[in-house]
Amino acid sequence: MAKIYPKAYFGNRLVDQKAASLNITTSAILYGLSVYTVFPVMMQEGKKMAAFRLEDHFNRLSESARIIGIDGFNGSWNYLKFVQAIKKLNHENKIKEDVFIRATLHVDEELPGTRSRGLHTVFSMFAYEAQPILSQNGARLKTSVWRRVPDYSIPSRAKVNGAYINSVLAKQDALDSGYDDCIFLDSVGHVCELSAANIFLVRSGKLITPDTASDILEGINRKTIIQLAKEAGIEVIERTVDLTELYIADEVFASGTSAFIAPVVEVDARRVANGKTGSMTSKLKKLHEEALRGAGKKHHDWLTYL
Ligand code: PMP
């Protein structure tokens, strides 16, 4: 298990991570009624730490709360307060390596029944060592027997804790079958994403990814890759994707905070092209890494120094 840092942010202050707990009677525990995001804090030149695209993470968290109808976030939190809390968490834990920070808004009202509005909430954050959830040298994917929960049931663009049971089922199915992760299809068989990462494919030099109406999480690294690719002169197409396109793609890769940019070398027992990391994947992975580390000339505005 990845190392978890000893101090957590819980209810407007820092506490011992092991003491930051929720009661068994709360909606967060009873129904998984919490929204969250995970963002990286990476070591920069001169051993400084910086969070990546923090404002996008804050906005997505706020939108997740709005979609679900949890109204305890937007009144009591703003971006400045969020940044201050992260700085405090970083300093108290003396973080000096790449970490992920998980920020969650929990509905901790006791026994309110199955509703969301006007309920008490508590905000938590903790930091843990940044270990990629997918191999960075070639992941093997299997189409899941479980379909992605559609927007009309539990919206994928909201990052809701309870909805992750869908990802747990699909990831475990893939692991049980000897693969690294799943490919989620929607209810009519189009490609959505992995259990916790977005998917891209390359065909004839063009970069293709399922569009935002394809029951996906609107990944912040997905958005980053699209921008970096366009800046590099690559044509990017966001559209519906068929499963069989992955079988004949020149390259396939996944993107996400915890997946970074993970090349995919096999899909459903079919090798992707020659089974090696493709050139466009390598190029975009390098540009992404540079952006995370503030190494390129551009995009320093994506970093918040802590
Ligand atoms: N899809 C799902 C289902 C996820 O859980 C994640 C991880 N947050 C992603 C995609 C990638 O999103 P991001 O790039 O914002 O980490």
Description of the molecule:
By secondary structure, this protein is of the alpha+beta class. The chain has 2 domains: 7-129, D-amino Acid Aminotransferase, Chain A, domain 1, CATH 3.30.470.10; 139-293, Alpha-Beta Barrel (D-amino Acid Aminotransferase, Chain A, domain 2). 26% of the residues lie in helices and 28% in strands. The protein is built from 7 helices and 16 strands. The strands form 2 sheets. Strands 7, 8, 9, 10, 11, 12, 13, 14 and 15 form a 9-stranded mixed beta sheet that branches. The protein is globular and about 50 Å long. The site of 4'-deoxy-4'-aminopyridoxal-5'-phosphate (PMP) has 14 residues, from helix 5 and strand 13.
List keywords for this structure.
16 strands, D-amino Acid Aminotransferase, Chain A, domain 2, single chain, 306 residues, 9-stranded mixed beta sheet, binds 4'-deoxy-4'-aminopyridoxal-5'-phosphate, D-amino Acid Aminotransferase, Chain A, domain 1, alpha+beta
Instruction: Detail the poorly predicted runs.
Output: none
- Proportion in helices: 25-40%
Question: Which structural class is indicated by helix and strand composition?
Answer: alpha+beta
The topology string of helices and strands comes to EEHEEHHEEEHEEEEHEHEEEHE
Q: Given the C-alpha coordinates, what overall shape results? A: globular
The helix count comes to 7
What is the average of the pLDDT values?
A: 97
CATH architecture of the largest domain: Alpha-Beta Barrel
Proportion of beta-strand residues: 25-35%
